[in-house]
């Protein structure tokens, strides 16, 4: 029976990048061409490349901390992939499903009794998100209700105003007292109709990128029932995209603890240290005092340079700075730089060389990594980088010390 190796012995390699646009197009095309309501299964690489502590389920439950919290995932989708609507819809669906099953009477899910008292007898319409029926004048009260629903949906993701300690605790997306008053303006059917106008109808403000057949089927279903099952296929599809594309890319970027400039710097330091080790070996062997006159064990002087160089190289190969890994520190991630860039937009931008220098590890603020799962992963990368450096250094030392150039 094969004994399973400890997890720290499995060489960690960051998830490969998946282009969101191409991935969504391929997934939608596969569904449209006869694969049913679900895309075909893909490689299970995500299961091996992403530790359980950083899984999508834990991120959605806000059981992870900075820089991989639910808020960070939302900011990543908003500023990097430009698809925050996927997370907003999925968080709303989970919340609606929980509210529905909590309040649905014993008659079963097909019983279309409103959970929340309707504000009026108006019938919703699947149109663009204007709140105005064709031929009707705008209803300020109705528009206000729709805007409140938009705020409610966006509020299901912890906002920037939420304290840091709250972002690192389990999150349950249930409405507050204020949100309860907002939802009291809608029956279930009205809420579903407004959600369809917000996420499903072509040209809507937060339109989801869905296969046409799936979209039409869902729009037809919600006209018959207010059950969450009417939108379950869309929720599954959005979850599939989040898990197999967005979350992978988010983890890939979140594990990288340094900027591009810092990684360039440490890679150069690693190369120079490795070259210095080789130069030391050659000088000891051939120049002090000459060939066949130097003691073999003096060649061990190159080992420290090779160890440092390869440690930096193996860590940088996986997108991390070795020095920052040692102290569980990181630099700001791209979505965290958005606010500072926006605030400094009016100021005069420094030249390219100054901007490059500011992003180097030596000059930029270092932030402590708060998520325990990420810290454990970074320790694993450190240990593996050092072990790999020891192995490569030992091989090089054996090769050079066995050459017939020593006394």
Automatic annotation (TrEMBL):
It holds the Pfam family RGS. It comes from the Eukaryota. The keyword Transmembrane applies. Residues 159-252 form the RGS domain. The chain crosses the membrane at residues 262-285, 305-327, 381-406. Keywords: Membrane, Transmembrane, Transmembrane helix. The keyword Cytoplasm does not apply. This is RGS domain-containing protein.
